[in-house]
């Protein structure tokens, strides 16, 4: 039987293993969600121990975001060159080591270095698991599976936040990182023994032993073996990250990166500053952690909301709607009374729409970047977009130091989502499928990838 294995996966019903793989990406994304929030949970304790002001704490909060930006850009390209699975394994080791070593630091410099290293792992992980979720999903279920994968991020904050809230009542801030490191280590054997390499990647890159690996995975998925690899020329197999800046892709690359950059400013204002703003209102740190947990609960529900509606509404229109509503509720959060119940509600609503918008962005990444540039394209957009994450807590810290009140601060920090919504109007969501053929130099089955990159936009 000489059938392109990518076509088989794209057009067949999903098997139990595929759902297990999606489940693993949810768990891995949850690690990312917890690791990113870990410094926010620990922030008040770190600020007290080292007597940091708002601006100083803003720089500390930004350190792993710098690592994430670098990791996404460079390790996304690595995932396209050496494979999704080895990249994920390497990222897990970096995250586990970085989280543990933070507990041994005796200076802000050491702490910042280890947070950068943790961020490198997080950034590479995000690019690789987004590609994995897309490439092990059927065409029909792809948008929904990406939404499910994205739920892991806020769920990591919910579960981790619940545990950390208890830990912080009995231990100091270092307990946050002991917990995070231990959970990360637990995932390493699961990824090693359960997660196969992407069939889409193997079929496209065709490394040594690719046919045997593909057939092993196809058997595990419940499909027949294929007797040969797709006919892809050597030039196509070696297409590099520079393809993102080719004439066919440069406009799309720049536009989707700018959109993600602007929206992420809103997300990281909520994630990084909520605990400190709540502590500033006179509440103890563990209650501030509870408020941040509600942002994650809202975020998880927002991911479900987007996944349910993604097959019924235009991907672009739905994403624009969530961007605009993210700004609305971030602004309302800034005007909430100093009542913890009301604060939790508005933080949850802001998290709902901000995270729903992130799902939309991730679905758009899969839509506009073809297979051979999917991890590198996603990594570049996330990496440069993380510049917004780096700037967000720093800008907010300086604005607070300059005396800006919370209502004005929230409106300003959420405005990036509105600008992102306007830019999204000009993005061509068919760029990935139309450029797929251009990238598939000498590939006779170009339609396999081209078709797989289409999401429902009806």
Task: Write out key terms for the chains shown.
single chain, 458 residues, Growth Hormone, Chain: A, 18 helices, 77% helix
Rg of Cα set? 21 Å
* Average predicted confidence as pLDDT: 83
Number of structural units classed as domains: 1
CATH class: Mainly Alpha
CATH architecture, by name, is Up-down Bundle
Tell me the span between the first and last alpha carbons.
34 Å
CATH topology category name: Growth Hormone, Chain: A
pLDDT < 50 runs, ≥5 residues: 434-458
Please count the beta strands (DSSP E, at least 2 residues each). Answer: 0
Kindly report the name of the CATH homologous superfamily: MFS general substrate transporter like domains
């Amino acid at each position: 039987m000489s059938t392109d294995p990518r076509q088989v996966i794209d057009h067949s019903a999903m098997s139990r293993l595929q759902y297990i793989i999606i489940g693993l990406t949810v768990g891995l994304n949850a690690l990312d969600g917890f690791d990113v929030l870990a410094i926010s949970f620990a922030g008040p304790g770190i600020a007290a121990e080292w007597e940091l002001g708002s601006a100083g704490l803003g720089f500390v909060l930004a350190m792993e975001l710098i690592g994430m930006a670098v990791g996404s850009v460079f390790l996304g390209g690595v995932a396209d060159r050496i494979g999704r699975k080895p990249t994920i394994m390497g990222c897990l080791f970096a995250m586990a080591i970085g989280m543990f070593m933070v507990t041994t630091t005796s200076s802000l410099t050491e702490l910042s270095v280890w947070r950068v290293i943790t961020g490198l792992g997080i950034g590479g992980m995000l690019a690789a698991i987004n590609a994995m979720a897309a490439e092990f999903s059927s065409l029909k279920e792809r948008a929904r599976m990406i939404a499910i994968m994205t739920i892991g991020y806020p769920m990591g904050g919910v579960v981790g936040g619940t545990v950390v809230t208890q830990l912080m009542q009995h231990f100091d801030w270092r307990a946050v990182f002991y917990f995070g490191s231990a959970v990360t280590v637990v995932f390493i054997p699961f990824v090693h023994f359960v997660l196969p390499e992407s069939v889409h990647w193997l079929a496209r890159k065709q490394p040594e032993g690719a046919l045997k690996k593909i057939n092993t995975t196809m058997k595990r998925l419940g499909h027949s073996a294929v007797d040969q690899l797709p006919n892809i020329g050597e030039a196509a197999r070696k297409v590099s990250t520079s393809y993102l800046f080719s004439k066919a892709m440069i406009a799309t690359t720049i536009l989707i990166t700018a959109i993600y950059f602007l929206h992420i400013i809103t997300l990281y204002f909520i994630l990084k500053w909520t605990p400190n703003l709540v502590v500033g209102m006179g509440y103890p740190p563990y209650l501030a952690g509870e408020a941040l947990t509600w942002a994650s609960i809202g975020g998880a529900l927002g991911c479900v909301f987007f996944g349910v509606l993604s097959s019924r509404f235009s991907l672009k229109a739905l994403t624009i709607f969530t961007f605009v509503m993210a700004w609305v509720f971030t602004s309302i959060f800034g005007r909430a009374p100093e009542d913890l119940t009301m604060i939790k509600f508005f933080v949850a609503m802001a998290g709902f729409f901000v995270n729903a918008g992130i799902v939309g962005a991730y679905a758009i990444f899969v839509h506009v970047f073809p297979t051979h540039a999917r991890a590198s394209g996603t990594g570049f957009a996330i990496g440069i977009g993380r510049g917004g994450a780096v700037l967000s807590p720093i800008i907010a810290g300086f604005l607070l130091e300059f005396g800006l009140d919370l209502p004005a601060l929230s409106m300003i920090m959420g405005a990036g989502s509105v600008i992102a919504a306007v830019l999204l109007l000009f993005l061509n969501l068919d760029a990935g499928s139309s450029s797929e053929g251009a990238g598939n130099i000498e590939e006779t089955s170009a339609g396999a990838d081209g078709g797989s990159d289409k999401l429902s936009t009806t």
